[in-house]
Design brief:
five-stranded mixed β-sheet; five-stranded antiparallel β-sheet; alpha+beta; Beta-Lactamase; 4 domains
Length: 371
């Protein structure tokens, strides 16, 4: 009986062991399946992480802003493509940027460009590193400067117009009385004196007329023209001045270049620039006018080898009454600037301050109502 029970117990134990083995086998299969699932999930996440890392690297390397990471010793750990384009092998450029070690936003003029530099510091692998975000803000600064100039021009124009009207009224009376007085004089000396007064009054009146033109709204009649036709008319009018100074004049305007403008107003602009060049160059000096066009705009460039314009005067070039000429009023370039802006274009000065001056008139081709 005891032996019989032992066999039964052994059978039961064996059955229990078999059942337990099956449970373990099932559990192992489940665990193996779960591990394989986790491996697949880990692989997918690693692939996704690799894709994101590649995307992040691509964004950083190709972003429009310059980006650089530098360690505390000044060693560059990372530098994106556009920053490489800015600097090339120019160590001076990089030194100007990494010179700042305190978090903040800085503005630096490097060469002829203006950069906004955003500096921050972070802990990376238990070490402090510095990040630099670099943006070229030259064009933005120029637009801000241009907007400020336009606002200033508007205010000055309104003020000048008010003063001009106040002056013109008594000026007319003085000229009238002077003319009446002139008819009654016999003495040649007195006659010459009154003639000088009348001549001076006409000069003042001409200045006032220019002031009023500057302040008056300009309604441009935009039409399609050949640049050469406009330039030829201006050159014909000023030819005698160039011949008088024996100036070497080169007209390189393209015969087929097209410009969309009000021809009479544009002639006034070109005449002003050419006249300034004639006054600027010495006898036997050189003046060149040329043009080029693309699908977006047409440019007319007037260049001379005269005395140049110093850089500190550039901001005042288009402000009325700002002139270095002994007999100038400083209104010519102001009026030219206003005409070009009314065309939706711009005018750009360039000079080294001593050996040459170049003005570029740029007028758009698109977005205009053209007859």
């Amino acid at each position: 009986m005891d032996n019989s029970l032992s066999i039964e117990e052994l059978k039961k134990a064996f059955n229990d062991f078999t059942s337990a083995s099956k449970v373990i086998e099932q559990t192992y299969g489940f665990l193996k399946e779960e591990i394989n699932h986790l491996k697949d999930e880990l692989k997918s996440k690693n692939e996704r992480l690799a894709e994101l890392s590649l995307l992040l690297e691509s964004i950083v390397m190709n972003m429009r802003s310059g980006f650089m990471v530098v360690d505390i010793k000044g060693q560059i750990l990372l530098k994106n493509n556009i920053l490489s384009n800015y600097s090339g092998d120019d160590k001076h450029f990089i030194e100007n940027i990494i010179n700042e070690k305190y978090p903040g936003i800085y503005e630096r003029e490097i060469g002829e460009r203006i950069f906004k530099i955003t500096v921050d510091s972070i802990d990376f692998q238990n070490k402090k590193v510095f990040t630099y975000l670099v943006d070229d803000v030259t064009d933005i600064k120029n637009l801000e400067k241009e907007k400020h100039r336009d606002e200033k021009l508007k205010l000055m124009g309104e003020m000048a117009a008010n003063i001009a009207h106040e002056i013109r009224n008594p000026l007319g009376s003085i000229e009238l009385y002077s003319s009446v007085l002139l008819r009654s004089l016999k003495n040649e000396k007195d006659i010459n004196l009154i003639n000088s007064i009348i001549k001076g009054l006409k000069t003042i009146n001409n200045i006032i007329s220019n002031i009023l033109v500057f302040n008056r709204d300009i309604n441009v009649d935009i039409r399609k023209h050949y640049v050469s036709d406009i330039v030829d008319d201006v050159v014909l009018y000023l030819r005698h001045l160039m011949v008088g100074k024996k100036i070497e004049f080169q007209n390189r305007v393209g015969d087929d270049d097209i410009i969309y403008c009000d021809s009479e107003y544009l002639k006034q602009v070109i005449m002003n620039l050419l006249h300034n060049s004639i006054e600027s160059v010495e006898e036997k000096g050189q003046i060149i006018i040329y043009s080029n066009e693309d699908d977006i705009s047409t440019k007319i460039i007037v260049e001379d080898n005269g005395c140049g314009i110093k850089k500190e005067y550039f901001d005042k070039l288009f402000i009325p009454f700002q002139t270095n000429k002994p007999k100038g009023t400083g209104l010519g370039l102001s009026i030219a600037y206003k005409i070009v802006k009314e065309h939706g274009g711009n005018i750009y000065p360039e000079s080294d301050g001593s050996t040459y001056t170049k003005f570029t008139i740029e007028l758009p081709k698109r977005g205009l109502y053209v007859k």
